[in-house]
Amino acid sequence: MQYMLLIYENEEVFGGPEKDGPAMADIRVRHFNFLSNLGDKRVAGGGLKGTAYATTVRTVDGAQTIHDGPFPEAKEQLGGYYVVEAADLDEAIAIAKQVPLGRDGAIEIRPLIAMPPGVSVQR
Amino acid sequence: MASALLEQTYRSAGGRIIAALAARFRDLDLAEEALAEACSRAAKVWPGSGPPDAPSAWLYRTAERAALDMVRRRQVRQTLLPEPPEPEPNAEDLMSSDDANIPEERLRLIFICCHPAVAPDSRAALTLRLVCGLEIAEIARAFLTNDIALQQRLVRAKRKIREAGVSFEVPGPEHWAERLSAVLSTLEVAYSKAHEDAAGSGRHAGFAAEMLGLTALLASMMPDEAEVQALAAIIRFAEARRPARLGADGSMIPLSEQDPARWSTELITDARRYCGRALSIGLPAPRILNMMIHALWCGRRSLDDPPPWKAVLSAYDMLLALQDNPIVTINRAVALAEVEGPDAALAAIAALEPERFATFLPYQALMGDLLARAGDTTAARAAFDRALELGPGEAEWRYLAARRAALSDA
């Protein structure tokens, strides 16, 4: 099964909405190490720039509007994600526990909806 | 009539059959439906042909065939499903007798139902339904909800297990520390529901019996896990005292006033075996200390034996060092009041902020008791009033109301 691991952390740890603090260099190295341990269980993944650079396209009753900022506003923001291949939820949980964090945070584990045969997420 | 036999067979072997089918087909719904189908066939066939010699094995075989049929029908509908594994051939199946024919997969089912990714209340309900085979209505009553709401909760839990890819394997011992605590706390929730309910109506004697069976099973499968043995002991000690928990007027009798002559010596003997086993493995875990407190109480032979308050207090001292939480503080204060007097106990719970516990029943009940003993009748009356407003169960309500009434006389 494929699972997406969504990484939620308070951006203040990384210098605020622009994520330009000194903690960024450190966490990058740790993610790099995490990735090398992950090997071919990694399907996809990436870090996100801070919410200062987020734009939201909202659709209400068919009308689309464009807004500055993330959706939704919260104490912890989505900061990055991985998509991993795991045998079951227990393996996904074990991987999620290894995801580096700047300080406190949460990793949400979401199973991906299965693709029809022949279609796969880019590796 | 075969219906009593069917009911009895379902009660005794249902969990085992569902577990075996779930392990093989990796699908809880399918396992449940297949067993239901087998039961309805039994209800039709047994009265005419006479009940089979090995009713559990009959039910299992029939459910297995029903499950295979269901899988085939599904495959016709959506050809993407993988082939189910072939049944393991066993020529002696119908010769040898009964339960032995059903693969023992209940441990696996317990780990699936008690996965920490499932919401805690749903874990307990699911375990009672699938592993213990309790009726929806019975579980709904114990969880103070209605059948429809409980049914929905079970459906959501099963869907979560399926869609999130919860493993159908028993986790390796290296993961037991984390996974077992979810299993044990689930069983504790399940038992406390049975325990609370029985104080009121006594309807759930069977429910508690299921918990005895389940903890015995777990203890036999994990003989080296101290906390598993401890839980088996705790549930037996608590069950042993059930006959003495209520007075003739239906009001709660506090532990120290219960007549040990009314406790079940059989269950206490059984509990001591698990207790000894748990202690031989050792580890000063909170569950072990809780077990020791139960064991101390159940060591009392009659009301003439002095209550073991001192020993109970030192056990709570150790427990508090491991697990500093309000429940432990409150229970320790009960013992402290007996050993050192109500003022010492009031001083000990002064650490708990009164505003935070305004709506916490055990806190208000204890405050009422301590203030009454310290001679502050007005404050005691107010605390008992608050406790009564918080909606205790019938037995505890009667007890607290009597305590309050006794104050007014003084």
What does this structure look like?
- The complex is a heterodimer of chains A (123) and B (410).
- With 123 residues, chain A is α+β, with helices and mostly antiparallel strands.
- In chain A, 21% of the residues lie in helices and 33% in strands.
- Chain A has one domain (2-111): 2-Layer Sandwich (Alpha-Beta Plaits), CATH 3.30.70.1060.
- Chain A has helices at residues 23-38, 89-98, and strands at residues 2-9, 42-47, 55-60, 63-68, 77-85, 106-111.
- A four-stranded antiparallel sheet of chain A has the order 2-5-1-6, with helices on one face. A two-stranded antiparallel ribbon of chain A has the order 3-4.
- Among the domains of chain B are: 3-87, Rna Polymerase Sigma Factor, Chain: A (Orthogonal Bundle), CATH 1.10.1740; 105-164 and 179-207, no CATH class; 222-304, no CATH class.
- In chain B, 68% of the residues lie in helices and 0% in strands.
- Chain B has helices spanning 3-25, 28-49, 55-77, 106-113, 120-131, 136-142, 147-163, 176-200, 205-221, 226-240, 265-281, 286-298, 309-322, 326-340, 342-349, 361-374, 377-389, 394-409.
- Chain B is elongated and about 75 Å long.
- Classes of the chains: A alpha+beta (123), B mainly alpha (410).
- Chain A binds chain B through residues 1, 3, 86-93, 109, 111, 117, and chain B through 80, 115, 117, 163-169, 171, 175.
Short note summarizing the structure:
With 123 residues, chain A is α+β, with helices and mostly antiparallel strands. Chain A is 21% helix and 33% strand. Chain A has two helices and six strands.
